[in-house]
Amino acid sequence: xxxALAPLLSRAATWFDRAAAAGWIDAANRARLDAVExxxxxxxxxxxxxxxxVVAFFGGTGVGKSSLLNRVAxxxxxxxxxxxxxxxxxxxxxxEAVRLAELPTHLPVERTxxxxxxxxxxRDVAWLDAPDVDSVEQDNRALALAWLAHVDxxxxxxxxxxxxxDAGWRVLRRRQHxxxxxxxxxxxxxxxxxxxxxxxxxxxxxxxxxxxxxxTCCVEPAPDSARDEFNRLVETVDALRSARGVxxxxxxxxxxxxxxxxxxxxxxxxxxGGDADWQRLDIAAARAAGQAVETILAGTEYAxxxxxxxxxxGDSGPLARLSKTIGGxxxxxxxxxxxxxxxxxxxALVGELWDDWSQAKVAACADAIEIETRKLxxxxxxxxxxxxxxAGRVGDEVRSAVHDGLRAALARPGTALTRGLRRVTGFxxxxxxxxxxxxxxxxxxxxxxxxxxxxAAFLGGAFAVHSVLLVVIAWAVPWLTDRLLRPSLEAAAxxxxxxxxxxxxxxxxxxxxAGVAGARAEAAELRRxxxxxxxxxxxxxxxxxxxxxxPFVAPASTAAAH
Length: 562
Hints:
- It is built from 19 helices and seven strands.
- By secondary structure, it is of the alpha/beta class.
- Among the domains are: 5-271 and 540-561, Rossmann fold, CATH 3.40.50.300; 415-486.
- It has a seven-stranded mixed β-sheet with strand order 3-2-4-1-5-6-7, sandwiched between helices.
- Strand 6 (180-185), helix 6 and strand 7 (213-215) form a beta-alpha-beta unit.
- Helix 16 packs antiparallel against helix 17 (461-485).
- The protein starts with a helix and ends with a helix.
């Protein structure tokens, strides 16, 4: 594997593992990464840094691939014909000084024939004769395609009668930007010279702007004519077998692999979304959560009133309380009722203010957010997981807030004005009777003094009655006023329940939205990492080749179109 590819693939695998573990990408995204081709020509050799150029004859049945390899070797390496061993195996023609590495598992040793030679000319070239790529036997075609990943230069061989509709060409065309290509019209002596021109036109339409095309003959000995360009074939390979040529063609394959990796990264970023997608989701989530809060508030109003009614003392208002007070003070003072005791409060709230209906509304809110997430093309699983972390605690949080609100309301019922006035009436209930008693005492002493000196009669029963009435009135007026000002515990409880429920639901709403925000932050971090990795992949793709091999390569964009 080229040095530039291995670390990028490793980083990508680590990122994909993280994103998959968090639920942001699915198996299809991971499959795109796994589909990036790891195999390279360097995998075949013990010393990849000084490896030979790998040239392979590929083509359909009976086009003369083995005959061409025999001409390269100057001897019969492979038998020719329709049924021959090389239709089912790969022949590798290799210099004796080149050490092969252990073949990858997808290249079976039992179907590989290695032929050694000592020709100095081909010291830096490894020639391959592959099975027929249009073979009806799936194993043969699979073997040919498996070797393609380890080839620098594909010598694609056709014949005059099969070049226009070649099933093998349709298979190999999907790989046209992954290798260097040298096209061979073999058996040209059996066809018309214009067929080579027609084949060149087809290649240009397929994306090869200047296809490297040679015509050769298959008869032995080869005729000495302009229609046999076998020497051009070997000279072309000669020109590419240098270290710069190997590096340039290796870079062709590397660019294709990097393009696949870049496409896999870009596809994996789609479920992460962009800022605009998350802004729309934030708006939709806030709307769904707000609707859920208002629905629950409206739906629990009846339950709130029922709980608050437990704190009622039977008097419905100031006039009624005045009437009942004057009529006999038949009811106990509300302030003396032990309604603020924790046991009473807990008993009033358990299971009544937050039931299955309320929890179902929270679940419906989570469903609405998840549906909107899917509509926007974002990964729904992490968002749903972040929401459910808070949704399960909504009931407890709301109950706690309602408890707090109720206790606070019962501890300080009424308004600030009424509480202030009641402080005044409380003071007057003690002050006015005391003042009246002082006045009565003063009047009694003064009358007794006057009577003792013979100036007047002693105080009588009328004075006593009037004194009692004065003291009673001095106490009764502020006491009745205090009774009128005393707030209803039912109203205070209802206000506390409503406020606590609102606080609890608002807190739950904020927690749900915080869950969405947390998912957004996680997605943004993963996206930034992926974008940095994709930028590094793009930079690696842009490195120029060591040698101009444009005539042997189809542009990647054109290849992708096919």
